[in-house]
Amino acid sequence: MVWAKYKDNSDIAARSELIVYYAHLVKYVANRLAINLSSLVEVEELISYGIEGLIDAIEKFDLSRNIKFETYAITRVRGSMIDGLRSMDWVPVSVRQKSKELEKTYISLETKLGRAASDMEVAQELGITIDGLASLLREVAATTILSLDDFLPGEDGDDRKKRIVDLLEDHNAGDAQEIVEFSEVKELLARSIYRLPEKEKTVVYLYYYEGLTLKEIGVVLDLSESRISQLHTKAILRLRGSLSKKKYMVI
């Protein structure tokens, strides 16, 4: 067995064989992440970062645990790509600012209304047209590709963030507060998803839980890929707003 050869004997040839065998996971994750990146980032760059994550996953995977390697590796690969994107600081500051302003608008409106704000209500609050809101959502879409569960927050004033998979894989993780925080953010996230408008909820489910691309979701819902992208962007902005109330950072 190739895994046993590598884990028991640190066989470099077996390690290389595993990297080649599972390389398709890197391409799969890169293509999914690239959907909303437009021309900002090349898929090849994501694949380069992802290979590092795959190697890390192979090295750290525990054969004794009842977890499929593919499931574990995809999280690692995606995290490595996200780390690479962060290091590139690839989203322009102006776009980040617009995204934060839009997120705050959703928070403010939905806190006041006690429900999800409609496009018309958000547009009126911002003093723009519906078409203007659609254009703004397209512009900030790239800021919402980073997933709902990639990082737990550090301490106040600490920019360092812990990836959830790191916490879960550590058998000796004794920080009960971190475990409780992880549980709380999962519960808050579940409640926030439940309160999303139905189409946005469906997009979140199909994208994050079923692994469909935005194009595939469009086929399922009989909507254009751009419309699905817009629904995804609005959903993530709403969810980030909900989580930020508890001082949790999603991206």
SSE inventory with pairings:
Blueprint: H1 2-9, H2 12-34, H3 43-60, H4 69-88, H5 93-113, H6 119-126, H7 130-140, E1 151-152, E2 162-163, H8 164-169, H9 176-194, H10 198-209, H11 214-221, H12 225-244
Antiparallel strand pairs: 1-2
Largest sheet: 2 strands, antiparallel
Q: What is the CATH top level name of the largest domain? A: Mainly Alpha
Could you state the oligomeric state of the chains shown?
Answer: single chain
Strand adjacency order, main sheet:
1-2
Distance between the termini: 39 Å
Number of helices: 12
**Residues in helices, as a percent range:** 55-70%
User: What radius of gyration results from the CA coordinates?
Assistant: 19 Å
Quote the beta fraction: under 5%
Overall tally of domains: 2
How much is the average pLDDT? Answer: 80
The CATH topology label of the largest domain is Butyryl-CoA Dehydrogenase, subunit A, domain 3
Query: Which second-level CATH architecture of the largest domain applies?
Result: Up-down Bundle
What form results from the Cα inertia axes? elongated
Low-confidence segments, ≥5 residues, pLDDT <50? Answer: 147-174, 247-251
- Main structural class: mainly alpha
Count of DSSP strands:
2
Helix and strand string, N-terminal first? HHHHHHHEEHHHHH
Features of this protein?
single chain, 251 residues, mainly alpha, Rna Polymerase Sigma Factor, Chain: A, Butyryl-CoA Dehydrogenase, subunit A, domain 3, 2 domains, two-stranded antiparallel ribbon, 69% helix, 2% strand, elongated, disordered C terminus
